[in-house]
Amino acid sequence: MLDFGRRWPLFIDPQGQANKWIRSMEEERGLISIKLSDADYMRTLENALQFGKPVLLENVGESLDASLEPLLLKQTFKQGGALCIKLGDATVEYNKEFSFYITTKMRNPHYAPELCTKVSLLNMMITPDGLEDQLLGVIVGKERPDLAEEKNQLIIAGAANKKQLKEIEDQILKVLSSSEGNILEDEGAVKILSASKVLSDEISEKQKVADETEAAIDETRAGYRPLAKHSSIMFFCVVDLANIGDMYQYSLQWFTDLFIRGIDDAELSVDVPTRLKNITSHFTFFLYVNVCRSLFEKDKLLYAFLIATKILLADDGGAGAEEVEKVRAKVAEEEAAAREKIRLGEEALDKLRDAIAAERANPEGGSDDEGERLRELEEELEEDKKAHKDVVAAVEEEVDAMRRRVAVAEEDHAKREAMKIDGGELRFFLTGGISTGENAITNPAPEWLSDKAWGELLRSRDLPGMRAKNGPKGDLVADVIADPSRWKVLYDSTEPQSVAFPEPWHEQLAQLQRMIVLRAFRPDKVVPAITDYVSDVMGRRYVEPLPFDLGACFEDSSPGVPLVFVLSAGSDPMANLLTFAASRNNTRVEAVSLGQGQGPTAIRLIEQAMREGFWVILQNCHLAASFMAELEQVCEIKIKQKVKKLSEVDPEAAAAADAEEDSESEGDGEGDGE
């Protein structure tokens, strides 16, 4: 597409994958990156056109500058013998080495048809499978760097082998095409062909060994895939938060950095399954805590519910059943080895008993030496019997522990099976189904059951889980029609989410199915029911209030990633920030209240802080929405580059910004989710 396409590419790139790839690919050619918000972007583009440099136009919206149209359409013309193009009011010489790339961070942009015909639209949004493979590489690189290095070497060797084989093929074709007469009579050609055959066989043999080694490595890597899959699900839970509010934008780089920290901080274990379980548990909660810092209180439970349901939807039960079988097989193998210890011990005791019996049965001799020998054997037998008894007790204890492992694995699997949810049921719980007008069946208890609630119950009967598995025939709706009074207990209860359903429905319905029924009878108690559900699936800590920890926020930030405080009216974190700065022995904190004409002052202060190592607080960011683009440039270019290049920069130099909660500040919420 890039090499042979007639139009310049526009990448839909919310995770920055295309941006990173383009920068890597065009680095040697001196890639120039620009934004439409840059004051001199047109002058930069003109120079790049003249000198044949690649240009990356980043973070465009749903429309482009009209002056770029001749460039998009490649409307070149000859002037004075040179190839030229009109760009704005200027005529610029067009170098054929020029390349143009456009990227947008928007997840689902709506481009006008006339723009779509001028560019090649390429969707580079990462897929769950693609992210899973990326995260698998990160995990293996952290946990088994030897495997990661070996696989990389095999890939390089494989590419070299293919290149050599291609060269051999080209050499053979050249010999065949240039040979005159009978090729068998051409001694030089025969030698070349023979040598090529030997070399080709050697390379093929090397590649065969490499393929076998790579297959073994991939099998080991596959053991880490469940964690990669789980973490991929976690990322897309975070991505889905953008559907709640535009401010909830999180980058893939931010997520990957958190993932690496989660691996580093998780509890260690030599047992790989235990280690992966530790990482999964630690990272999931670590991510939850970090994301919740940037969520409004009303959205935190929704995020926890999203995590719980996404995990359960992704669990098809197959991996769990396979895991149980692996535990059973391993335990059976270990138990057999333990039983073998007992058998060998009993064999040794039997041999000792036979030796004693032989000594006693020998009537000849009777010397002191022979009597001493018999006593030694008897003492040895007594000692060995005691030792064997200890071995048997230890083995039985080991076997009990092994069987408990199987029981725990089976219990976990059974719990996962019981928690499994259906996508259709989840959609119904979230939407209540689609109403088709009047209810087909008359409400059996209009005095306490509303028509809206009855309509939801009627629609729920289409869900397979709402039918009786045994006992009374029919479905839950039929049960309500037959005896509404049994269900009025649920309606009258002060805590219906905790009340047992009429039998047999409490046992037959899964927790989410009971929540569907509760939604119809008592919609006011859905939130407490969701809280209980999240607690049961994820653990109590996912529904308990998280205290605000400024120190933890600071530790998770960096000089190139500012902290943004989204405030409600009347709140001011200034006192807390000053106290925290003092606790870190940072005595200099400078604040700028943004407003008209304060942008240059803020930029100068940030640049000074970068040199001298103090903190800058930008207040009232919502009053300077137009300045946010310039601040973004400072964060992305000046701060990050200087932090990387200048070792003398104080690592505690940071910029902190606070913004009051309004529509403009929410619109400027893109970034790394800090």
UniProtKB/TrEMBL annotation:
Residues 366-382, 658-674 have a biased composition (Acidic residues). This is Dynein heavy chain. GO terms for molecular function: ATP binding; dynein intermediate chain binding; dynein light intermediate chain binding; minus-end-directed microtubule motor activity. GO terms for cellular component: dynein complex; microtubule. It comes from the Eukaryota. InterPro entries: AAA_9 (IPR035706), DHC (IPR026983), Dynein_heavy_D6_P-loop (IPR004273), P-loop_NTPase (IPR027417). Residues 559-643 form the Dynein heavy chain region D6 P-loop domain. Residues 358-388, 645-674 are annotated as: Disordered. The keyword Coiled coil applies. It is found in: Cytoplasm, Cytoskeleton, Flagellum axoneme. Residues 5-203 form the Dynein heavy chain ATP-binding dynein motor region domain.
